[in-house]
Amino acid sequence: MASLAGISVLVIESQPTMRAQLRTMLASIGLEQVQFAASAGMAVRRLRERRYNLLLCEYHLGEGQDGQHLLEDLRNHEIIPLDTLFIMITGERNYERVVSAAELAPNDYILKPLTAETLRARLQRAFDKREAFLPAWKLIEMGDSVEAVAYCEQAQDEYPQYLIDFLRLQAELHAAMGHVEQAESLYRLILESRTTPWARLGLARILYTRKRYEEAEEFLTDLIAENDLYLDAYDLLARCREENGRTGEAREVVEAAAKRSPHRLNRLRHLGELALTLGDAAAAENTMAEVVRKGKYSDFRDPEDHVRLVQAQLDQGKLESAEATIADLDKSMGEMPKAKLCKALSSALVHARSGDVLRAQEALLEAARSSAAAGHLSVGLKQELVKACFDNQLGDQGTEVVMDILRNAADEQTVESTRAVLRSRGLEELSRQIEQRIQTEVKGLISTGAEKARAGDYDGAVAEMMNAARKMPGNPHVLFNAALALLRHIEHRGWNERFAAQARGLIERARRLAPAYPKLSAISEFMHSLLQRYGIRPQGIPRRPA
């Protein structure tokens, strides 16, 4: 049985009375390391400062966000590690149905009214399970996914009550390492024994990664028909339909999801972008105005939302409304580097629409001076910047932005959509020239790093490839080779924790950008072999018997 002694707790609760009650209950069961956050934003700030073993979170947190959305933000933005338990407290009797439809589910949930004994028993149960999974989570954290899979295979016999959970983690790890066939087999094995919504979604995600969109869509359609609250399934279904060029049908799916969960900013953004793509400026304006309003309550607000709102307003000829939106952007987020670029782009769009080419050029040149923030701009808005530059006789600046897009293109879709932007301006030949130039540049950078490594200059190889990674932070091929240079250095010069941590970060970034990248498996095995060779293990976790 896991010990509850010394557990650090963050309670996220907006009501002072309930905060006091929880403090008393936690103290009565021996938990004294307790801090409080009265809102989701305060919780995020506290969690950026330190780690906690346990988060106790009220489901209803006031305007703009509930506990489930907070959990999704914390996990998706990697603000809390896997071994931090998140337990929801709620008075909603139908919450079990809600949480069963959440891919990122809390570790447990407790219904109100609750007693100290109920709280103690549920915490004990959650920490007993945490103890079983802790070695796997620690191995994942240090980058040894291969060993984490091996631990899961061993632990499922030792902890048969968690068999399905260990199988799920194995499938997710195989998918993360690029072992898509093994992941698919595990999901199908789970589905043979029980109808598990998350396994069907996992299988659909693997099919999507393998570009088997029709098969994925079939799984997702059936899943939604059986459980209309499984919102992650809607999002993946919309992406499947977009990949097949069915943008209107994708929009219908996202609309259905947004009606069921109206607070998710990412989903609303997607809906607004789809409306813009389809030429429905009025709907895009309504949606993006809502995103901007809700974003005021979120630590993850994005200046790009204002640009999309400006686009929708300009498409309807609402110049004054667009200018008001730019003013709001400057007032609410003007201190952010990316906001300066977004303001400049929005101003350029307004001036171009009003026919003032000179002022549009001035604004675009201001955007160019804010290019340090361009790396954080989405591909879609970079492409809008390209259009604005070429439409306002700033071809050199437009070419530089195109080069930035292609240097960091994570997939063929980005390349093709950028080609289409240039093709729409009659610039097919320029597109071919830029693509050839970037291919040569990438090959040259990687070749230089590889040559230094072959010559035994492992310090030089690392310096060369890390510089390339800084220059092309969104290029999976470059990121992979930078990670490889770091690991080669460790192989030949000895263990270096800083280099290992950098390699882990680069591999994870490459995986997120290109989950089907063909060399993910090889580099995962290489990382595992180095950890084994140097005897690097998480503290307190013994080596498996040979």
Uncertain spans, ≥5 residues at pLDDT below 50? Answer: none
Summarize the amount of helix as a percent range.
Answer: 55-70%
Morphology: globular
- Strand % is under 5%
Mean pLDDT: 90
Total beta-strand segments: 5
Summed up, the helix count is 26
- Rg measurement, Å: 25 Å
Kindly report the CATH topology of one domain: Rossmann fold
Please give the largest β-sheet: 5 strands, parallel
Gross CATH architecture of one domain: 3-Layer(aba) Sandwich
* Strand order across the largest sheet: 2-1-3-4-5
**CATH homology superfamily of one domain:** Response regulator
Span between termini: 27 Å
Would you state the CATH class of one domain? Answer: Alpha Beta
Structural class: mainly alpha
Written account of the structure:
- With 546 residues, this protein is mostly helical.
- Among the domains are: 9-142, Response regulator (Rossmann fold, 3-Layer(aba) Sandwich); 159-261, Tetratricopeptide repeat domain (Serine Threonine Protein Phosphatase 5, Tetratricopeptide repeat), CATH 1.25.40.10; 448-534, Serine Threonine Protein Phosphatase 5, Tetratricopeptide repeat (Alpha Horseshoe).
- Helix content is 69%, strand content 5%.
- The protein contains 26 helices and five strands.
- It has helices spanning 16-28, 40-49, 67-76, 95-100, 116-141, 145-158, 163-176, 180-193, 197-209, 213-226, 231-243, 247-260, 265-277, 281-295, 304-315, 319-333, 337-353, 357-369, 379-391, 395-407, 412-424, 428-454, 458-471, 476-493, 497-513, 520-533, and strands at 8-12, 33-37, 54-58, 85-90, 108-111.
- Strands 2-1-3-4-5 form a five-stranded parallel sheet, sandwiched between helices.
- Strand 3 (54-58), helix 3 and strand 4 (85-90) form a beta-alpha-beta unit.
- Helix 9 runs antiparallel to helix 10 (213-226) and helix 24 (476-493) packs antiparallel against helix 25.
- The longest helix is centred in the last third of the chain and has 27 residues, at 428-454.
- The chain is globular and about 70 Å long.
- The two termini are 27 Å apart.
- 43% of the residues are buried.
- This is Tetratricopeptide repeat protein.
- Residues 8-127 form the Response regulatory domain.
